[in-house]
Amino acid sequence: MTHPVKVAVTGAAGQIGYSLLFRLASGDLLGPDTPVQLRLLEITPALKALEGVVMELDDCAFPTLHSVEIGDDPREVFDGVNLALLVGARPRTKGMERGDLLEANGAIFTAQGKALNDVAADDVRIGVTGNPANTNALIALSNAPDIPAERFSALTRLDHNRAISQLAARTGSAVADIRRMTIWGNHSATQYPDLFHAEIGGRNAAEVVDDQAWIEDTFIPTVAKRGAAIIEARGASSAASAASATIDAARDWLQGSPEGDWVSMAVRSDGSYGIPEGLVYSYPVTTHDGDWSIVQDLEIDDFSRSRMDATAAELVEERDAVTALGLV
Ligand code: NAX
């Protein structure tokens, strides 16, 4: 067994947490030879429920689970963490305006960014799942000046996985045969799932599909609105699939994307593909040992360009709103 890795999860008593913690503890992220120390953050009223979840973790007797600590103070919970999965966020409730939502989450992600800056391990990686994920990541990284901005990412892997699954169903192909899927932009209804660079068994996916109307009127909206469809069917938002995507994203970030493939991750834009620098924007990236690099030189046609710009414009609006609130 190697040295234990300290993994923080926020919002640990929530729905996603209820799936995520058990997968982390059972070795799904780091494999059977790496013990995991879980550091779980919740708001004070949810600590009792979290104690119950910890009892269940104990009862699983996972050989890879080294220890669990819980708390409501990010400075204690994040102390020395190597990986922080920021899942907890304030959901939009009735009567809440968009500005109120950004402000409520701003308070959470400024405090957590500052705490990570001060107490996390030198090699920390931070993945943001809690919505609005891209802008929450922007707020957190802006409040952590001593942590390189490349250590922050926001989750678009669930959208990426949804896109693969929809494409596999339409073409009758195996998920394992699909590569080079890309989600561009925001984890929101403006995201752009791109089939023009994806491949099925080495063939261009858009050519295999050969139906622009299906791509525009069915594929893109189905992927972009899948979260709402899950709520409609299940009566609750995506949880196990979101936890699974959170694991996929962190695992590939730390251990590397598969040879010949890439993954979608929302990362701080360096201006690639004409996207304003500094936005947390989802790109196709390859990863290696905890670093990522944006896949360069993909040919972008007019259709893709307009979709990529539209989702960037929404992120610019969100950035302007949180800038006006003094959060970044
Ligand atoms: P839940 O409401 O079930 O759980 C959220 C938990 O976060 C609660 O237990 C709450 O007490 C806790 N929390 C709130 N403020 C906190 C703080 N300051 N510190 C620590 N914990 C805090 O939501 P759940 O279904 O688990 O979803 C969590 C977040 O993921 C939501 O923001 C949701 O919108 C987002 N999602 C993001 C997805 C993505 O692909 N990026 C997909 C799934 C999900 O919608």
TrEMBL record:
Q: List each copy of the Lactate/malate dehydrogenase N-terminal domain by range.
A: 5-148
State the source organism's domain of life. Bacteria
Mention one GO biological process in which this protein takes part, according to its record: malate metabolic process
Q: Where is the active site?
A: 187
Instruction: State one molecular function term (GO).
Output: L-malate dehydrogenase (NAD+) activity
Under catalytic activity, the entry for this protein gives: (S)-malate + NAD(+) = oxaloacetate + NADH + H(+)
Q: Which positions are annotated as binding NAD(+)?
A: 11-17, 105, 112, 129-131
Q: Its function?
A: Catalyzes the reversible oxidation of malate to oxaloacetate.
Family under the similarity heading: Belongs to the LDH/MDH superfamily. MDH type 2 family.
Quote the protein name from its UniProt record: Malate dehydrogenase
